Please model this.
Amino acid sequence: MRSSRLKAYPQLIVSALLLASAAAAEAQSVPRDRIAGSLYAQASVVLRGSLSPLAQARDETGRIDGAVTVHGVSLHFGLSSAQQADLDELLRQQQDPLSPSYHAWLTPQQYASRFGLSTADQARIKGWLRSQGLHIDSVSTSGKRIGFSGSVASIETAFRTELHRFSVGGASHFANITELSVPAAWSGMLLSVRGLDDFHPRPRLRDASPRFTSSISGDHFLAPDDFATIYDLKPLYAAGISGSGGKIAVVGQALINLSDIRDFRTAAGLPANDPQLVPGPDAGSLVLQNGSEDMSESDIDVEWSGDVAPDATIEFVYDKDVFDALNEAIEQNVAPVVSISYGICETGNSTQINTMQGWLEQANAQGQTVIASSGDAGAADCDSSGSATASHGLAVDFPASSPNVTGVGGTEFNDAGGSYWSSSNDSGNGSALSYIPEIVWNDTGKQSGTSPALGLYASGGGVSTQFSAKPSWQTGTGVPDDGARDVPDIALAASNFHDMYLYCTTNSSGQATCDNGGFRFSSSDASTNNTLTVAGGTSFGAPTFAAILTLVTGRTGASGGLGNVNPRLYQLAAATSDVFHDIVSGNNEVPTASGSSIGYSAGTGYDLTTGLGSMDVNNLADAWVPASGSGSSSSSSSGSSSSSSSSSGGTASGGTSSGGGAFAPALLVLLGSLRLLRQRRRQRA
Model:
């Protein structure tokens, strides 16, 4: 009998191996075909939400000539319901330290093999585009984005619309004037058609008066050295942690002059370290626009991310639309951390948001952390910051409002009555002496001298209407019981009226604003001579926090990316008392035309103005992984990284890090079978 039982063991092992192999094969299965009907039939459906809310009939100036070629148009397809459930479960497991898929990030190719479009569906879609006289320009790795170009006439016929020109605020734009129609066979698959309008998002940069000239005026400003002192980065630098080996992707929609970046680093006393320039698919249409808001925004994001992590590689990904640049940074997995200082209000943009939310989930699945500014119009994100009053009600900014993104709000230093600044600058042009207490940034309506009063200038924050399920990780003291995603998550200095940030750029006259190795601008014009270029806004929070996370990764020794860091941030806020500076004073309220105000006030713990608060970066890095831990495996809570999670039991397949990879679930099956064999053998002995 003993002999027969022993003969059965190899058979059981073989069975276990077959189960393991089947599990691995299931994890790597190719996407199923989803297009059932003919794309060439007359049946079509209206693509709801395919009109830009900024293309108003009152601004229309005429139809575009049909012979004009439109470049940079793209179709964006979503996941099937089964794929979405599988991705939700994967994202949950990737942030669960007890899961074999913990931090087992996917490559773009692995993501495509599991969550992309099938090869047959891609071929059908490309065939339809060609049949409409359109040219295929690019196809993403996953096949979910297909770029094309063609004449206005061909596009109008294919999508049953018209393209017209608009004049808005003195600028010329174009857009479709009716919602698009698409083949009925795409129903439920196609999320959006991008590129049929050129209403691009605005940066979160807030310019400030050039009167701030330090020793000349007595006012303070933020040099890189000041930021390092106030937020306690210097112990990390002293320990040799400066971003070496790390990468940060900064996305923008403008060309930059490398000379401005070099000027900034020279003025800040930093070593040379040029950013890597990564053009997106349609970046060839960009022209250099000195002095533009977009160029200044790009300069700020590149300069300040490279300041906080001075030895990191900054990958500047740019395209004609910053959201396309974001997509490129994710599709190509350019860097573990991605910074974006642009956004749109949630209201009226659900189609764009649904499309981009898929990108952000892909980013997290690949281990990428996405950081976004929370907006600069206080609690009224749909109103322009230049407006005197809010007229569109409460709203928050996307992508900061995505549960797959860390939203960064704004604070202002409350340095009255304290000795926080030195009377002279050090070699890095810094003068801050220590951490400076902070309040909520709200410069709305403030005025200096004869300058016009500021409009709606305050930290963006509030309750999302697009993401109406509370993320499982967003808990703790002060977190509202509102059943929705709340914004922001953290905050950093943002005032454009008090203690602003220095940066270097090229003005509209083609002159570099940082001269002779310093931050000052030399000019023959007495009104601008010897001044500084300064700004504020939550634009500064995204690149600086992206760099902070790069330092945290260096401190912990973690390999690969961190993915969605929100679960860990809220866990740390609940478990520690020295990581976050709790901002308890101020509000982001803004006035309405009726004379009332809308917004939120700061309070103990989390609030809808500054989130968990600002941070002591050295303490953040120390606390990220407990001292007894040997790696990153204990660094995250088990909360879901998306707005909803599924219990569908989708097999978690892996990436390239140590979390287990695609074979991990299969290996567990094998190990479980071997344990069962041992138990049976002991029972029969």
